[in-house]
Amino acid sequence: LPFQEQIAPYADRFGPDFRDWIMRERPIDSRPTALPGWLDSSPRSPEQNVWVKANGVLPDDPMLHTCVITYASDLTLLDTAMLPHGASYLEGRFQIASLDHAMWFHHEFRADEWLLYHQKSSVASGARGLASGKFFNTDGVLVATAIQQGLMRPINSFG
Questions:
Q1: Is 98 considered catalytic here?
Q2: Could you please report the per-residue DSSP string of 16-65?
Q3: Does the CA dihedral 1-55-92-102 come out positive or negative?
């Protein structure tokens, strides 16, 4: 899909039950290109794309832009490892936590301009998931890479 079609009708893709929650003001404006796993818990490929940017204009401080994207990198990355399991963290069936998170920055970028966050999980086993993400600017330049390992443990109920 062309860039503008991927980000423009975001609120219209969700029912009224989620629209208010999704559209509330947040520090990061994130717009998945497909229904996120927490809304569509059918098993699927461990890969997703999310457009992200800061909600507002930021000062011209490269360190601030780096910090904002570091924060954004944690919002959906581990969700990618959950996709093949047909589970959503909103269901409350899994304990999910970040165990390790690393980033590399390759080129200068602005966190207040749209970046495509392409995420893919290579493995989810032994109550852990591993996912990587790449941030591309709208010119297709790879500007940053993130890797995260997380706990994804089913919550057992006794009694």
A1: yes
A2: HHHHHHHHS--SEEEEESS--TTT--S---SEEEEEEEESS---S-HHHH
A3: positive
* Active site (annotated) includes residue 149: no
Catalytic residue (choose from 74, 112, 132, 149): 74
Parse the chain into domains and list their residue ranges.
3-154
pTM of the model: 0.85
12 is catalytic: no
Question: Taken in order 2, 38, 64, 143, is the CA torsion positive or negative?
Answer: negative
pLDDT digits (tens, 9 = 90+) for 79-125: 999 898 877 766 777 888 999 999 999 999 999 999 999 999 999 88
What pLDDT, on the 0 to 100 scale, is given for residue 94? 83
Given the residues 45, 98, 100, 122, the one annotated as active site: 98
Distance (Å, rounded) from C-alpha 113 to C-alpha 122? 28
Query: Of 48, 119, 121, 148, which residue is the catalytic one?
Result: 148
Average pLDDT, the chain: 85
* CATH no. of 3-154: 3.10.129.10
Place of tokens 């893709």: 13
Encode pLDDT of 36-47 as tens digits. Answer: 666 667 788 999
